[in-house]
Amino acid sequence: MSMAVDPVAAGLGTSGGGAIGVGVGGGAAAMDGARPVDLARHPSGIVPALQNIVSTVNLDCQLDLKMIALQARNAEYNPKRFAAVIMRIREPKTTALVFASGKMVCTGAKSEEHSKLAARKYARIIQKLGYPAKFKDFKIQNMVGSCDVNFPIRLEGLAYSHGAFSNYEPELFPGLIYRMKHPKIVLLIFVSGKIVLTGAKVREEIYTAFENIFPVLTEYRKCQKWPLIMSSAQVDERAFGGRDWTSLHHCA
C-alpha cells in the first residue's frame, strides 16, 4: 500500500538541508555554526537539522472560537472547513490550532524550546481575552528533521534489498519511504541524497535513525560519469596508448 505524503508537512519545502559535512582527518568535533558537533554521536559527520516540531497542550477550559477569532490578531476561523481557530505569531514563527475543548496544537517551531515558548505565548493570548487558560500536559508529538548526504542514491536497489522496510513507487511519489523499526522513524529518501526524517518524539531518535541508515545509503551510492577536460598540452594521448580518457566512471 502506498502512503500519501504531504511535502510541506514533511518539511520538504524548507531550503538548505541542514547537513554539516566533516572533512577527512577531522578532529574530535566539527563546527555546527557556533556549536561543536560531537563525532562520537555523529560518526557520519552529518547532523540532521530540525525543520518542524508539533506539540500539544491543554488549556483546560472551554473556548468560544468565534469570539477568539474576532478579538485576537492574526487569527482565522472557518468552521465549515476546520473546527479550530488558526492563530499565528512571528516569534517564534509558528502556527497554532485552538479547539473549543481547550486543546491546542502548535506547529512550525524548529527547536523544543521554541515550541514550548510559542505554546505559552498562545496560551497567554487566550488568557488576555478573558479565559482562565492553564498550561497543562505540554507534549512534543512529532519532530521532523532533514539533511543531505551529498551523493546520489540508487533507490531501486535499496527498495529491492530492504523490501520489508521500504515502499518505493516513483509514479506516485519521488522518494523512497523507509519505515525504521528501532527507533520508530519514517525516512523519506530521495535520489538526490536529500533525507527527511519524521515521527520522532525526541531529537536523539532522529540522530540515531540517520546514523543507522547512513551506512546503508553508502552501499547504494550511485556511480556518476564525470568527463575529464584536458588540453593537449596536459595530456599526450600517445603516452596512454591511444586510450580514450575523456569519459571515466567515478563513484561520487
How is this fold's topology laid out?
Blueprint (H helix, E strand, L loop, with lengths): L28 E4 L2 E4 L10 E10 L6 H7 L3 E2 L8 E6 L2 E6 L4 E7 L2 H17 L7 E13 L6 H7 L4 E2 L8 E5 L4 E5 L4 E7 L2 H17 L3 E5 L19 E5 L1
Comma- or semicolon-separated keywords:
252 residues; alpha+beta; two-stranded antiparallel sheet; elongated; TATA-Binding Protein; 14 strands; ten-stranded antiparallel β-sheet; 19% helix
At a glance:
One of its GO terms (biological process) is DNA-templated transcription initiation. The chain is an alpha+beta fold. Helices cover 19% and strands 32% of the residues.
Description:
This protein folds into 2 domains: 29-50 and 143-225, TATA-Binding Protein, CATH 3.30.310; 60-134, TATA-Binding Protein, CATH 3.30.310. A hairpin with a 4-residue loop joins strand 10 (176-180) and strand 11 (185-189). It is built from 4 helices and 14 strands. A 10-stranded antiparallel beta sheet has the order 4-5-6-7-3-8-12-11-10-9, with helices on one face. The model is unreliable at 1-34, 230-235 and 237-250 (pLDDT under 50). The protein starts with 28 loop residues before the first strand and ends with a strand. The longest helix is centred in the middle third of the chain and has 17 residues, at 112-128. It has 252 residues and is an alpha+beta fold.
Determine the CATH topology of the largest domain. Answer: TATA-Binding Protein
Biggest sheet features: 10 strands, antiparallel
**Sheet/helix structural class:** alpha+beta
Order of helices and strands: EEEHEEEEHEHEEEEHEE
Radius of gyration, rounded? 24 Å
Output the number of helix runs: 4
Give me the count of strands.
14
Strand content: 25-35%
Organism: Panicum miliaceum (Proso millet)
GO molecular function: DNA binding
Main location: nucleus
Family: Belongs to the TBP family.
